[in-house]
Amino acid sequence: MPDLKSVPEELEAELIDLFDTWHAVKQRNAQLTTYYNMKNLTKDLGVSIPPQLIGTNTVVGWASKAVKVMAVRSKFDGYVFGGSTLRELDRLVRDNRLRTLYSMACQSSLVHGVSAFTVMRGTARRPVKVRSYSANQFAVLWDKDEGRIGSGIVLADTDREGIATKYVMHTKDAVVTFWRTGGEKGGWAWQSKYEPHKMGRPMMEPLIFDADDDRPLGHSRITPEVMGIIDKAMRDVLRMEVGAEFFTAPQRYILGAEESLFDPSPLVGDDNTDDTDEEDEAPHTVDRNMMIRAYLGSFLSLTRDENGEIPSVGQFPAGDAHNFIAVFENDAQRFSGATNVPLGQLGVLSNTYTSSDALGAANDPLILEVESMNARNKETMEEIARMMLAVSRNASLDELDDEVLDVQASFSDPSMPTIAARADAWTKIGASDEALKGTRVWYEGLGMPQTTIDRIMAAKDQTDSIALLNSIAEQLAQGGSLD
User: Domain residues of the chain, as ranges?
Assistant: First the structure.
């Protein structure tokens, strides 16, 4: 936290409140990050797992899967105004790599329930600077009356040790930058810069997942239920590993064997044997290599016991591996029910789909969830567009014209249909409206990328121009007039 001596007096209380909020959720956010990054440790119950095997690698990456399976279907395409695009805004989107920023912010919002964008004044070449932050890097205070954040602060930079060197605070009237100066010998000092703006709101917008009235800043996709299922799945994987070891080398027994076979005397190669007198009888020795050969070898030779009886050799039955597999499949089914992730994406192929329609139906709950998320995220991206244009034009939001205020964010279809399916659907649509064929909307419906559509439209314009020139030349050659 910056030194309060560098903070404007009217912002001290608000800044303290922001950092208190940040610290209150820091541990929870760190836990969610640990599960997402698959760094969570196995939570042993202390019953059946040998202590020396607790550290066995039993990573279950389902938390990451729950996040990415939704994020990959939420694809921000850009902005439109009444069916057309605005070159100025397209340039701002391209300069700030806004599509990539959205992808990162979407993943972060799914992990922690919320992420954030900031919009600030840039350079002469790039007049607007947009950045995204995870919940580990910012804190905000919610304004219930306004229905948006009242203020926020972001961690803008750190040194090599991860210690904060720069914070940026956003209020409805100003942007305040705090930065650290000095060195270790001379001590650190904090300075600040107060920059007022006329936006009328913080130049910061959260991207929220699954908000409700009680938690307007959303819920994490990695719920307590999800974490509990993952913890159990990790224990089941560990039990599976331990069971596999006993299955590979099951315990054996020998009945009626000579006692010397089990003599606990020193083994060959042990350095901890006590010195014995030369007069004492040499200890019975057992070669470790011979022990493993006896276990794994095809033949085993044993002497008769003292009564002349032949020893009886046997093996205890190993545990059935199918029991472990069934338990793990049950974990996957519970996780699928909690997250709508199809079982096939969890490494469990217990379902046999009889048709492509059945396979698509398995994804329907997930697609509906992504559509709901996209509807909320569109509002956030549209507000960011308005702020970008306001900063670019050095205006307030109220000074923007109606066309800009009506900007719409465009997202790809989360069902991600194939090109063949798109072509079939839009061919039928075009059959009912011939004027639609050949338009940008038509090619977008077919799923073509914007670069390809631009090339097609440019080629069509060039072809139309050449055809028009040929028509004019033919008319003049026949002695006609251009009137």
Answer: 1-248+319-416
Instruction: Check if the beta carbon of residue 14 is closer than 8 Å to that of residue 151.
Output: yes
pLDDT tier, 291 (very low <50, low <70, confident <90, very high otherwise): low
> 302 and 311 in contact (C-beta within 8 Å)?
yes
Rounded average pLDDT over 362-385:
92
Q: Hey, is 206 helix, strand or coil?
A: strand
SS3 346: helix
User: Range with the lowest mean pLDDT among 184-188, 200-204, 464-468?
Assistant: 184-188
Rg (CA), the chain: 34
Residue 444 above 70 pLDDT? yes
- Cα→Cα distances 193→177, 196, 388, Å: 5, 10, 22
* Distance (Å) of CA 145 to CA 132, 148, 354: 25, 8, 52
What's the length of the chain?
483
**Beta-carbon count within 10 A of 327 CB:** 16
- Residue 160: left (phi > 0), alpha (psi -120 to 50), or beta? alpha
3-state secondary structure 450-481: HHHHHHHHHHHHHHHHHHHHHHHHHHHHCCCC
Give the pLDDT score at 361. 72
How far is CA 19 from each of CA 47, 141, 168, rounded to the nearest angstrom? 42, 10, 12
Q: Quote the tokens at residue 250.
A: 């099951």
Q: Are 168 and 156 in contact (CB under 8 A)?
A: yes
pLDDT grade for 472, boundaries at 50, 70 and 90: low
Q: Give the least confident one: 24-28, 312-316, 365-369, 407-411.
A: 312-316
Position with higher pLDDT, 257 vs 60 = 60
User: Which long-range contacts does 401-407 make (Cβ < 8 Å, 24+ apart)?
Assistant: 403/81, 403/82, 404/81, 404/86, 406/81, 406/82, 407/79, 407/80, 407/81, 407/86, 407/89, 407/382
Does position 164 have pLDDT exceeding 80, yes or no? yes
Distance CA 42, CA 34 (A): 12
Distance (Å, whole) CA 37 – CA 368: 26
The amino acid occupying position 437 is K
Mean pLDDT, range 458-480, rounded to an integer: 68
Residues 69, 363 contacting (CB under 8 angstroms): no
What beta strand segments (E) does 123-264 contain? 128-133, 138-143, 148-158, 164-170, 174-183, 187-196, 204-208, 252-255
Which pair of tokens denotes residue 37? 């990054």
In Å, what is the CA distance from 139 to each residue of 19, 96, 108, 134, 159?
A: 7, 23, 14, 10, 20
Residue 305, token pair as written in the block: 């016991």
| Cα–Cα dist 209/218, whole Å | 5
The position carrying tokens 């942007």 is 175
Residue with tokens 């210690």: 163
* Spatial separation of the C-alpha atoms in residues 426 and 414, rounded to whole Å: 17
Q: What is the pLDDT of residue 429?
A: 80
